[in-house]
């Protein structure tokens, strides 16, 4: 429940602190006194739309704080905890409005976004008026209201879960169909490519090895001739070794005659002959090493060119042909597997559809039963509100082709305001006063079905007579036995039934230089309360008869005037 409301520098309100209790609280005052300003300020603290025009003239900022006393397991606390906010003690929603239009939001003095503030505020407070009750304008809310009344929340969650499962199954099947279709289109290409690459059988590092071998063969061809010429010069027919050997033998025969002259020459000739023979052997070995098979060079080049042509064709490096061949073979093998998976996913989709239809059908049946009970309960509340000739209709239309998280039902509140008239959506058929009374009847019926802990009604008794106003007051008081109710009212019959009565009035505040108007709120008790109710009955001139009538209203409500 709302325990305390504090407003600073909002329009005509300079400083306001109000404490609220359980039960029914009313706010009364003359037109233009500032009741709407107070509600606008309260809505700002709940995450309502900000506006720099709300800041009191001459001030840089305004501020509204709302303190709520809530059970530890209340949904608003869980929402705050989900945002990692401290929720010990009271829950305090605060909004700072700057004159330049900026706003800041806080929950328990921890900064939050306006969206978070609005989400938490909506779980605590509902504000209803003749023309701004969103729950009555949105059929999606009608469906939630009906599910709450019928106790079908768990079934509705099961349907939402089945819908999500169905959605995922449908998406998975569609994605697989796209993959299979793409694979089918590429099947011929893949088959040819896998066969071609399989025949080619590229090996890792093969290009580098072939290029190196080819380069060696081509270099050997170039040096082979020089090696042959060199060999001919030192070991072939042109070799000087035979001539040198002949000279060596002649000198050896003369060695005894002049050893000092001949021995050095013999040693030099021996060294030269040995060196030439070693050079010949070396070049002969080199010639054998340089020998190659021209056919082998041709085969090497053909293989290398085939690999490079395939690489160009498939737009990958030569070394990437191995990975490409493996990938294409896997894609081709996956085509058959994809066909099998397609069948499995189709079966899963059928299973998900059957599960959804089963859950949604059960929910639809529960909604139709709840609709009958809701219509009957609202019907009992209408006669005292002077709507005895009207009919409230919870219209449930089912379309199994329109499947979604909410099932396949469209729920909308319809009314027939007079016998013989055509029923229609409540927001279109009911007048402003009728709409307020229909809404009040609904709230009374739904009070025990998860209503927000604080309900605010903004002048829902406008334009109704005394008997209807009395019936509205009686129902607000009955509703206040279950939840906290705050009502802005012009009806004395409603005000008399409140447990707490506040008077909103404008007054002049004298300053040092100028006089300005401010809004003040006063808690009324006993005589001051009877005087206000008498004013509401009589107008500007309060008579003794009006005071007496006010006393009777208070006594009838169980209060002393």
Automatic annotation (TrEMBL):
Span of domain RecF/RecN/SMC N-terminal: 14-504
SUPFAM superfamilies named in the record: P-loop containing nucleoside triphosphate hydrolases
Pfam families reported in the protein's UniProt record: SMC_N
Gene3D superfamilies found in the cross-reference section: P-loop containing nucleotide triphosphate hydrolases (3.40.50.300)
Family per similarity comment: Belongs to the RecN family.
Function: May be involved in recombinational repair of damaged DNA.
Protein name listed in UniProt: DNA repair protein RecN
